From TrEMBL, chain A:
Transmembrane segments: none annotated. InterPro entries: Bact_Chemotaxis_CheA, CheA-like_dim, CheA-like_homodim_sf, CheW-like_dom_sf, CheW-lke_dom, HATPase_C_sf, HATPase_dom, His_kinase_dom. One of its GO terms (molecular function) is phosphorelay sensor kinase activity. This is Chemotaxis protein CheA.
Automatic annotation (TrEMBL), chain B:
It comes from the Bacteria. Keywords: Phosphoprotein. PROSITE patterns: RESPONSE_REGULATORY. This is Response regulator. The modification 4-aspartylphosphate is found at D53. Gene3D superfamilies: 3.40.50.2300. SMART domains: REC. One of its GO terms (biological process) is phosphorelay signal transduction system.
Length: 688, 121
């Protein structure tokens, strides 16, 4: 944080702009699908209006000008003077995009793309003109300070009406204001004042005459009465010096009392304030929120993580001290454990955010891609309110963007090809988020041509990724697109060919403890499914022991555990073996061997087999010596504290204070698989 | 004793900006996010002057002013309306609702302070 308050407010402004832009986009999209009710249009208008207001403070002129034109247009829509057709809607959407860019440019202090904004501004002006013959007025700039002039004497005759007082204005204050402008003489005329019994306390009966000697001009004097000009009779003129006495007498005589209207305040129609408040509350749309620096939340999460570990350590010590489970201290500890869990969940919930933040960027991306590829695309999103940890949200943005690019660029066909295939010209891309068994699932599907397996296979052979005669199932062929260096577009296209392949997407997803899978049907389209943990701070793990080392296997990857029967184990060579399992064969991976812990104690059948599922590598058996239990562990980055270690995803601190390593199941399984598929007789330690 | 000013605006930028300008001028500042919130704040606190935006969710500036003018205690509290343009239509609507005066955005802090001093004793 900086000490400069203006810089801080500027930062707040840009943060707020992000919210406003989200509001704006959401509202426009609702309008686009015909769900734009009055409040939606109002919210859209307000968003642009607020951005303009803030931009004005910081003299961001380009932004102010553009927002003004945009706002004018929206105001016409809001007041019902302008109906929006699809072309107009598209213009509003593009304008929202341009506004986003202008805000970003302003934030980064860059020069804005004036040409594009200018062209859109002209279009907006034309659109607004449909709703109103009169062109939008330019934003008012602060008035220049008046030039000083010679001393002159002015006469100000002022008779307030009751409305002036009803509006909480005050004659005394106006007179005070006048007297600040020069030397004033004030006279009061109370001739209209009735008898006390007949007096209405809310009415106005007095009038004033001020003689003011000042350097200011008439406009400045009038400005004092700016707020009250409709609520009084006002006369301002320069005193002809020679006739002062005569005039003064006449003026006093002429200042007759005015008939007073009833106080405006009494005639106002009742305003349903309470009803509105009640409605807002019952709708539950508005909850009190605060903005908190993310660092503070993270610090708290860190501390709660330490609390969980400490609590586990205390429990362990109590257990070791041989205290009965029913002892008061053990029971109190149990309560503490439950509380600690609850605190942890609550703190995690603070970081949870709806995926809307990411989903909202997608419509714009789709519009741009559709324009670039000449394809017609309709985007459907579902489950935008699904909540997930903020870090996860931040980290899925890039993979998701690439998946959408992929779906439009590679998945959907051109309108001509679609029509030829008997499909509607407009392709569909669906983006869905949902919670399933403690994870968040994000699906990107298209109704395009599906994966061209023959072509994928050929590419993989051309790139030397598989042997010419490799016997692959459809599923395995589909999964080839996740291999490094794979690209199905014959020519590197503008869109997907940005040096990012699906392998990068997979790696990004795996780095978060996520999985990605694909399902494709020829002629019907493809579905990519992301499965991600809800948080990256804790992990449900299985505590195992092998070669005297304690390890954690992420519970999410463990399908089942079993004690292998010696007869089911079929060695392939002196290092590798497979396990016969329900009619199929699953490769056995000896963790102690792979991680070079030395030999595992005993024969395979004396160990415990964990059937795990990995992304890309399929199923495998991880062989360990024993299972010690299951527990939630706090993830500590090993990379940040030491360096990246092959086969290890992270570390944690156990209840006894020892460090245990968390296995990176996907890396271990897929590396074993790949090395056996390529038939390279190398151990993993040589591969990596 | 410092004058207390209640600022009602749904834009946090504007609220911060108002607060910054007003505190620098020696006022005490109360804040609210919209009309409903403003009425709420006034149930607990007393403001000498109110500065309100017009366009706000839930209860806009006009509705907020009308509600205050019906309240026996607050009907004499000066209320300044923040408006973006010198829109005569908006001004007269604000007037009809019971506003004391207006401030044109983007406001000049000196003019804002000046306007507040003009309407407060």
């Amino acid at each position: 944080m900086t000490a400069d308050p203006m810089a801080e407010i500027r930062e707040v402004f840009f943060q707020e702009c992000e919210d406003q832009i989200s509001e704006l986009e959401m509202g426009l999209l609702r309008m686009e699908i015909g769900q734009g009710d009055a409040e939606t249009v109002n919210a859209v208008f307000r968003a642009v209006h607020s951005i303009k207001g803030g931009a004005g403070i910081f003299a961001l002129d380009t932004l102010v000008r553009f927002a003004h034109g945009f706002e004018t247009c929206l105001d016409r829509v809001r007041s019902g003077r302008l109906a929006i057709d699809p072309a107009g809607m598209a213009l509003l959407l593009r304008s929202a995009d341009a506004l986003t860019d202008l805000v970003r440019a302003a934030r980064n202090g860059e020069g804005a793309q004036d040409a594009r904004a200018q062209a859109l501004a002209t279009e907006l002006e034309r659109l607004a003109a449909k709703g109103d013959a009169k062109p939008p007025s330019a934003p008012t700039l602060p008035r220049a300070a008046p030039a000083s002039s010679p001393l002159r004497t002015w006469i100000i005759r002022f008779t307030p009406k009751a409305a002036l007082y009803a509006h909480a204005n005050e004659t005394a204050l106006l007179l005070r204001e006048l007297s600040r402008l020069g030397t004033a003489e004030v006279e009061i005329d109370s001739s209209a004042l009735p008898d006390l019994t007949e007096m209405d306390p809310e009415d106005a009966y007095l009038s004033w005459t001020v003689t003011l000697a000042t350097h200011h001009d008439a406009a400045t004097l009038r400005a004092v009465f700016d707020f009250v000009e409709d609520d009084c009779d006002l006369d301002i003129f320069e005193r002809p010096d020679f006739a002062f006495q005569d005039w003064d007498n006449t003026a006093a005589a002429e200042s007759a009392p005015q008939p007073m209207p009833a106080a405006a305040i009494e005639t106002l129609p009742p305003h349903p304030v309470e009803a509105m408040a009640a409605q807002a509350e019952s709708a539950g749309t508005v909850g009190a929120t605060i903005r908190v620096d993310l660092d503070r939340v993270d610090r708290m999460i860190d501390l709660v993580g330490e609390l969980v570990i400490t609590e586990a350590m205390v429990s362990q010590r109590v257990l070791e001290a041989g205290l009965a489970r029913t002892s008061a201290i053990a029971m109190a500890l149990e309560e503490l454990e439950a509380l600690t869990r609850e605190i942890q969940d609550s703190v995690m919930a603070i970081r949870a955010q709806p995926v809307r933040a990411v989903f909202q960027r997608i419509p714009r991306l789709v519009r741009e891609l559709a324009a670039q590829t000449g394809k017609q695309v309709r985007l459907v999103t579902e489950g935008e309110g699904t909540e997930v940890d903020k870090t996860v949200i931040e980290r899925i943005a890039d993979p998701l963007t690439h998946m959408i690019r992929n779906a439009i660029d590679h998945g959907l066909e051109s309108p001509e090809a679609r029509i030829a295939a008997g499909k509607p010209a407009e392709g569909l891309v669906r983006l869905v988020a949902l919670h399933r068994s403690g994870r968040i699932i994000i699906e990107v599907s298209d109704n395009g041509a599906g994966i061209n397996r023959a072509r994928v296979r050929q590419k993989a052979i051309d790139h030397g990724l598989i042997n010419t005669d490799a016997p692959l199932t459809d599923d395995e062929i589909d999964n080839l697109i996740f291999l490094p260096g794979f690209s199905t577009a014959s020519a590197v296209s503008d869109i997907s060919g940005r040096g990012v392949g699906m392998d990068v997407v997979r790696r990004a997803v795996q780095a978060m403890g996520g999985r990605i899978s694909i399902a494709s049907k020829p002629g019907q389209g493809s579905t990519f499914t992301l499965s991600l943990p809800l948080t990256l701070a804790v992990l449900d793990g299985m505590v195992v022991k092998t070669a005297d080392q304690t390890l954690i296997v992420p519970l999410a990857s463990v399908l089942e555990t079993l004690r292998p029967d010696g007869a089911d184990i079929h060695p392939l060579d002196n290092r590798t073996a497979v396990l016969a399992l329900r009619g199929g064969y699953v490769p056995i991976i000896d963790i102690a061997d792979v991680l070079e812990f030395g030999s595992r104690i005993g024969q395979p059948e004396q160990g415990v087999a964990l059937l795990v599922e990995s992304e890309g590598g399929g199923r495998a058996i991880l062989l360990v010596d024993e299972i010690q239990g299951q527990r939630q562990v706090v993830i500590k980055s090993i990379e940040a504290n030491y360096r990246a270690v092959y086969g290890i995803a992270a570390a944690t601190v156990m209840g006894d204070g020892h460090v245990a390593l968390i296995l990176d199941v996907d890396t271990i399984v897929s590396a074993t698989r790949e090395s056996s598929r390529l038939e390279a007789p190398r151990s993993l330690s040589q591969v990596f | 004793m410092a004058l207390t000013v209640l600022t009602v605006d749904d834009s946090r930028t504007m609220r911060d900006m108002l607060k910054h300008s007003l505190i620098a001028a020696g006022f005490r500042v109360l804040q609210a996010e919209d009309g409903i919130d403003g009425l709420d704040v006034l149930k607990r606190e007393t403001a000498d002057v109110i500065v309100t935006d017009v366009n706000m969710p839930r209860l806009d500036g006009f509705g907020f002013i009308e509600a205050l003018r019906r309240d026996a205690e607050k009907r004499m509290t000066p209320i300044l309306v923040l408006t973006t343009e010198a829109d005569p239509d908006k001004k007269s609507r604000a007037k009809a609702a019971g506003a004391t005066g207006w401030i044109i955005k983007p406001f000049d802090p000196a003019k804002l302070v000046d306007a507040i001093r003009r309407v407060s004793a």
